[in-house]
Amino acid sequence: MAEPQPICYRFAGFVLSPARRALSKDGRDVALIPRYFDLLVLLVEQRHRAVHRQEIFDRVWADVVVSDGALTQAIRTIRRVLDDDPREVRFIRTVSRHGYQFVWSEVAATEDSSRDEARAVAQTFRSAPVTDAGSARAAIDPFEPLIAALLGQGQLTDDERHDAAVRLHELGTDEALRRLDGRPGHEEARAILRDARWDAPAAGEVPIVSSEGGLRAAADVIVLRARSAARLASRRWASAASASALTGVVAGIAGGVALALVPGSTTGVEVTVVLALVGAIAGAAGGAGVGAGLAAAETLARSARAAALVLAGAIAGAITGAVAHFLARALLSGLFGRDVATLAGGVEGFWLGGAVGAGYALATRRLPQGGLAAPRGAARWKAALTTGVVAALAAAALSIAGRHLVGSSLDVMADAFAGSSVGLDPFAQLLGEDSLRPVTRLLVGSFEGLMFGTGLTFGLMRRPRVRA
Description:
Number of strands: 10
Mean pLDDT: 82
Strand order of the largest sheet: 4-3-2-1-9
Helix content: 55-70%
Radius of gyration: 28 Å
Low-confidence stretches: 116-139
Number of domains: 3
Oligomer: single chain
C-alpha cells in the first residue's frame, strides 16, 4: 500500500511545506527559526478555528516554558514575513483573550510532490513587474530606521525595540553593530541585539564585554534578562518548593516506618508524624532556595546554561543551608539551652545544590536554548530521576566525608536530648552497626539526596497554565 503523499499549503504566492520544513515566497526561500515555522504550520493547519495560546505553548513550545512575549514576538515576525499588518489583517487575526487564527481564505492544500513544482507554481509571482512603490522602498536604507528604533528614538516600547533588533539581525548583524558603535545609547542597544539573537535565524555573534562600553552593555543584558526572569521564574521556584516538600513528607514517613519495623523498636506513630513534618519543612526550604536559583540561572544565562545552573544551584544551596543551620542552632539554644553545632549547613547546601544544578543541566542538555525546560510525561520523570541520582551521589560523598544532612542531623540532635526517639541507632543495628556508622550514613544520605533532587526537579519543570 502506497504511503500518503505529504501535503503542502499554497496561499498568496507562498508555499508552506511541513514535510520539507520550508517556506517560500515567489519561489524564493524565506527564513524562519524552527519554532516560528512550527507555529505558522499549526495556524495554517487549524485555520478553521482560533487556536488558544495555551495550545500554542503546549504544541510549539512543548519542551520549554517561555514568556508571553516570546509568542508575541513569534507572531510579529511571521506577520512581517507574510507582509501582514495587524491593523488591516490579511493572514493572522488576534483573538482577544484567546489566541490567534489564520484567516486567509484561499489556501490550497495539495500534494507536496517536489520542490521544483513549488518553484514553478510561484514563477508567475516572480515574473510580475516591480512597482514604483516597491522600487522606492528598496532604494531606502533599511538599516537607519531600525537603528533609530533600537536606540529608543521615538518613545518605543521594549517589544518594538526587540522587534527592530530581530530585523537588524536579518539584514546583517555585523553591519548593524558597525553602525551602532559610538552612538549615544549604543550600550543598551547592543544588549538588546544580544538578547534578540535567539529570535533571528541568521543572527551573528554580538560581543559584549570586549566592545566599547562593554561593562555597561553587560549590565544592560543582565537587567533585560532579570525582567524576564522575574516573570518566568516566579512560579517555577514555588512549584519546586511544593514538590520538594511533598517528597520530604514521603521521605519522613518512610524513615518513621523503617524505624517502627526494626525488631524490638519502641518507635510510635508520633515519630512518623514528626519526621514527616521535618521532611516537609526541610524539603520546602531547600526546594525554594535551590529552585529559585536554578529558575533564575536558566533565564539569565542562555549561552552558558550548564555552568550557570551548577553555580546558581551551589550558591542558592549554600545560602539556604547556612540560614537553616543558623535558625536550627538558635532554636535549640534559645528553647532548650543546647548548642548543637554539627548540623547540616552551608557546606552541605553548596555541594548538594551544585549537584542538583549539574543533574538538571545534564538531564535537559538536549533542549533548545532560550526558555525554561518543561519536558512531559516519561521525559519529565527521566529528567527528574537523572537529577535525583546525581544528587544522591553528591549526598553519598558528603556522608562518607562525615558531613551531615537532615537525617544524620536529627540523629545528632537525638544524642543531645536523652530519651529522643528520632535517632537512627535502631536502623543502624538492622544494618549491623551499633550507631550512625558509614553504611547507615551512606544509605540515609543517598536516599535523602535522591528524594530531594527528584522532587525539586519534577516540580521545577512544571508547565504553568496560561492565564486568560
